[in-house]
Amino acid sequence: MNAWGKRDDMTVHERDPFNAEPPRSALADSRLTPADTFYSRNHGPVPAADPARWRLEVDGLVDRPLSLSLDELRARWEPTELEVTLQCAGNRRTGLTEVRDIPGETPWGPGAISTGRFRGIRLADVLADARPRPGAAHVAFAAPDVSPLADPPQPYGGSVPLAKALRPEVLLAWSMNGAPLPHVHGAPLRAVVPGWIGARSVKWLTRVTVRSTPSDNYFQAVAYRLPPADPEPGTAASGEGGTPLGPLSLNCAILRPDDRAHLPCGPTPVTGYALAGHGRTVARVDVSGDSGGSWQRADVSAAAGPWVWQHWHTTLDLPRGDVEIVARAWDSAGTAMPESPGRLWNPKGYANTSWPRTRVRCR
Amino acid sequence: MNAWGKRDDMTVHERDPFNAEPPRSALADSRLTPADTFYSRNHGPVPAADPARWRLEVDGLVDRPLSLSLDELRARWEPTELEVTLQCAGNRRTGLTEVRDIPGETPWGPGAISTGRFRGIRLADVLADARPRPGAAHVAFAAPDVSPLADPPQPYGGSVPLAKALRPEVLLAWSMNGAPLPHVHGAPLRAVVPGWIGARSVKWLTRVTVRSTPSDNYFQAVAYRLPPADPEPGTAASGEGGTPLGPLSLNCAILRPDDRAHLPCGPTPVTGYALAGHGRTVARVDVSGDSGGSWQRADVSAAAGPWVWQHWHTTLDLPRGDVEIVARAWDSAGTAMPESPGRLWNPKGYANTSWPRTRVRCR
Fold first, then answer.
1. Of the candidates A78, A158, B55, B135, which lies 20 to 30 Å from B227 by C-alpha distance?
2. Which residues lie within the region annotated Disordered (chains A, B) (predicted)?
């Protein structure tokens, strides 16, 4: 067993903060990702958390600030469950680092994404009781994990617009996949913001603040912003001038065969995932066994819900030699994925939504 | 004055059915498109319409079918107004026909898009009074304009899912830009389905039918489906096997300078539009004066509403000689546009969302 209860074959990018993703094939077998396989993205040390002493504060632009123990919170509002795919903004970053180096950022493969069944309460219910005041426009989440990566070092935080916070899918969750939320995934309570970058699903949540402006936390105001691909000199590293990342866009990855695998040639099962944005589903996935020269249509699983990835499967007849397998997805709005990572490269390595490519050697 | 009250410099692709788009520069000057400039897309002859005899029938899976005159309809529900950009699924098709011929489809440039301020009632209010029954899942629109292009020839129609039909932005409109809806744009009453392909905003609307399944009209069941880029032989022409088009994806076009223009070299204003999908805005537009070798960021107008295009402007310093101007937009979900139309080509020529390119000669 690896750190934090993770399986032995996780790729641990950093031990502290703990950043780890499962091998790609481990994501291929089921819609829900087991807790020991779920990717883990942190910005500081996992904080000590004593559920008995833990409280959630709800404050800011509200008529009735709240302070609640976990028992109070669980008793006060109707619990609900939802399957949600969480994806890091840096998922598939290695596709961009192959184009040009991205120093200082975790080299995520396609495994910075996982799907859980979360149980908790609706943030909207909490906010309704706290009664946002006129001028309320954003809801900030704060946690106790101090990040040395922030400038200056500060506890992790972020925010979402009030309109998103009031949607029924946004949860404060204490359970994942039918078990108590693992400590490394935010116990006793985390935000779950479906359809948005994982960075907004703040773990070890201790404070919800209603504001007129977005959070001024480093991870909202500076990081997790998509910088220009060709930034002005001196602005690149910090993401300044970039657009804040929030909702997820269409993405897709190949899970099997593994990249750099050596395989027998002939009929080869190929499988992967695709994730459409809010209000959309994955309409089609094409797969190519010759670097995009010809394509065949994959079987795409039905969407199990509006916030969940869809797996796809096909069988390619692979020739002997070095083969590049390529996939491309379309969503139900006809959105096509960009072909080249070169055109998506940015100095923070966010939002690689280019066609996934897997190179294998067939004998 | 051209046919149907359109300006003289419209590009009339066909006289019957009347299909016409404005010159691209005519779309650059204002957020709202004047009625004489608004693109017109038809599938059959514009039907005779006598407002005094016209009625709207609401039927299908409803407890209380309705039959209403225009006066009854206008008196019964609270009117509302909304700015909406309508875009044909075939907008920018010429970017695809440059890759490979697309016989039988109208060669739209970037002008199959326009923005109006529509006044009408909410379809949701009408449906609430008609009371959809259990099993209701789609809302079909029918009109009297018989299309000879359909197989077999039939009146034009289409549908949207009930969840979309119940959203507050979906209107039944009798007015555009403060004036009565022009006859060619659907008077006395048309559907306006913001954020979806123009084909679902059915004109000369006479019937709204609540159904358990999508409309089986030719223009829902066969046309306006995105076929595979590399379809199986024999299935290409009809769009069979394609995914039904509905919500719009991120798009962008260059309006000035005109394609193939001869210009003085030096600082040159460049302007265009970009349109994000539902729940998203245009976050950034980059423009290149050297075919994408280098880029500068354009000023993007604020979104005037959730369903309206955004204009963008910059000034490029163009060198002497043949120059290719390229633009690319990002939406607020970090969605990037595909670079190449070659990778988007499909036998119906829908959904060209590749980087727009304008070639000019500078002297």
1. B135
2. 1-46
Q: Cα–Cα distance between B101 and B82 in angstroms, integer?
A: 38
Residue pLDDT, tens place only, B310-331: 999 999 999 999 999 999 999 9
Condensed to tens digits (0 to 9), the pLDDT of residues A315-342 reads 999 999 999 999 999 999 889 999 999 9
Out of A243, A279, A286, the one facing B330 most closely (by C-beta) is A243
Yes or no: domain B11-244 corresponds to CATH 3.30.300.130: no
Q: What is the pLDDT of residue B111?
A: 98
Is A249–B339 a contact, with Cβ atoms under 8 angstroms apart?
Answer: no
**What pTM was computed for the model?**
0.89
- Nearest-neighbour CA in chain B from A76: distance (Å): 31
**Cβ partners under 8 Å of residue A154, min gap 6:** A146, A147, A217, A218
Contact criterion met (CB < 8 Å) for A294 and B230: yes
Average pLDDT of chain A is: 94
In angstroms, the CA A111 to CA A92 distance is 8
- Rounded Cα distance, B246 and B328, in Å: 23
Decide: A348 and A106 in contact? Cβ < 8 Å: no
| Tokens read off for A44 | 């500081």
Query: Counting beta carbons within 10 angstroms of the beta carbon of residue B53, is it exposed (0 to 12), middle (13 to 18) or buried (19 or more)?
Result: exposed
Answer yes or no: are the C-beta atoms of A56 and A206 closer than 8 Å: yes
- Chain mean position to CA A351: 11
pLDDT at B188 over 80: yes
- Model confidence at A351: pLDDT above 80: yes
Do the Cβ atoms of B222 and B172 come closer than 8 Å? Answer: no
Contact A336, A90 (CB under 8 A): no
Handedness of CA B177, B181, B183, B184 (dihedral sign): positive
By CB neighbour count within 10 A (0-12 exposed, 13-18 middle, 19+ buried), where does A248 fall? buried
Give dist(CA B76, CA B79) in Å, integer: 9
> Rounded to an integer, what distance in angstroms lies between the CA atom of residue B159 and that of residue B18?
22
Inter-chain CB pairs, A–B, below 8 Å: 108
Q: Smallest CA–CA separation between B294 and chain A, in Å?
A: 8
Q: Are B164 and B196 in contact (CB under 8 A)?
A: yes
DSSP string, A95-136: HHHTTS--TTS----TTSEEEEEEEEEEHHHHHHHH-BPTT-
- Tokens linked to B337: 């546009």
Residue from A191, A220, A185, A256 nearest A89 by CA: A220
Tokens 């939002």 belong to which residue?
A351
A230/A185 Cα distance (integer angstroms): 35
C-alpha R_g of chain A:
21
CB contact under 8 A, B339 and A334: no
Contacts of B322 (CB under 8 A, 6+ apart): B359, B360, B361, B362
Quick: pLDDT tens for B293-310: 999 999 999 999 999 999
| Mutation site, A287, A331, A335, interface B, largest B CB count within 10 A | A335
Q: Where are the domains of chain A?
A: 11-244, 251-362
Looking at chain B, the number of H-run helices and the number of E-run strands are: 5, 23
Q: Tell me which residue has tokens 């979104």.
A: B303
> Which residues in chain B have their CB less than 8 angstroms from residue A283's CB?
226, 243
Q: Which DSSP letter does residue A83 get?
A: E
Residue A261 CB neighbours (<10 A) = 14
**Torsion angle defined by CA atoms of residues B269, B275, B281 and B284, in that order, rounded to the nearest 10 degrees:** -30
CA A357 from chain centre, in angstroms, equals 20
Contact (CB, 8 A) for A191 and A243: no
